[in-house]
Here is the input.
Amino acid sequence: MPFGRLPRVPSLRLLIQSWPWWLLLVALVGLRLSKGAFLSDVYALISRPFWPGSAQCEWLQASKQLELQARQAHLEQDNRRLRALLGLKRADPGEVTAAVLSRETAGWWHQLLLGAGQIQGIRAGDPVVGPGGLVGRVASVTPTTARVSLLTDPASRVGVWVGRTQRHGLLTGVGTSRPTLVFLEKDPQVRPGDLVVTSPASTLLPPGLNVGVIQSVDEKGVPAPTAVVQLGAPVGSIDWVQVLVQAPPAP
Amino acid sequence: MGILHRLPWAVATAVAVPLLNLASPPFLKLAGVPPSWAVLWLLPWALADGPLSGALAGLGLGLLLDGLNLGGATQIPALAVLGWWWGRLARQGPPIQRSLSLGLLALLGAFLLGLSLLVQRHGFPLPGFIPQLSILHTLLAQTLLTGLLAPMICSLLLLLWRQQQR
Here is the structure.
């Protein structure tokens, strides 16, 4: 081709005939724009039989688990230290399983007699839980028995917490199977079905123990709104309970 | 004063009252509320042994039962007064010891005992006092059940105590 002469424009027919090359070009551009996504997927699929063994993956998972455990232990230690500074109850007490020897769930008193006492490490004030949640607190104790004041007893008062709305309240026994929750705020914003747990600010009970579920709300209660709570633990039919004894603090 | 208090085994039967309170048999409950076992034991004892023995038995029973229950409410005054009152009523002779009379006396006794506990646990029911439904339920259920069981249990116990006195 002599110098200074422009190249010939290819004919339209030639361009149409070379459509597979155009298709390839579009595909390559697409591959470029997607940062080789399709290529990577295809490569992963093809090379799957040759991937590295599971040993290294398990090492990674194990190390991650160890890291989480260490972090949990560190946080628990921090939590214990801070709760001790604030004078709050520990969140991880020891457990003593005890049989229910006698129960009065209706009448003038609402109480249980348990077949474990001071010898097993139970002290007055220890919380008692059954399947479903908190049952009450140990009111008096002998070497081999403990008497539990139930949440339903008219003399029972326990600080509780509605987690969804983050509202505090006072769970008050009224002599029926459903105690009343008296809120501290005018507008507690709770509704039936909300879960009630022990208060994180309680100095008497460990935080976060399941208590029950709000059954109905009386927003016009005076001086503050009230709610009826269906207890999680069926006290009338529980034969075994666990007493959460306050173990000596970890060093 | 009769001779029942001189029989150790007769006095020992009073232990059945706290034991029954603890065992609290479910088939002898009315809507979850047990009868007043103290009234059911004390009534025939006082009728058979006189006012002083009845009052002392009421005192002893009250001490036993107060040890079993939480809180500061006590059953001693009501039981002692009932024991003394029933002991005095016994002087009227057999008519007061018929089954129906026993039922009515136990009914009244359980009601007064319940009322004393109500006053101690929930305050004096002055005019305008609106008791919680659960308190009324407990008071009525225990009174009715005690009154219903009394003709059977008290009659048998009274028969037993009378046989010992002959």
In short: The interface with chain A takes residues 22-24, 29, 31-34, 69-71, 73, 114, 117, 121-122, 132-135, 138, 142 of chain B (CB under 8 Å). Chain B has seven helices and no strands. The radius of gyration of chain B is 15 Å.
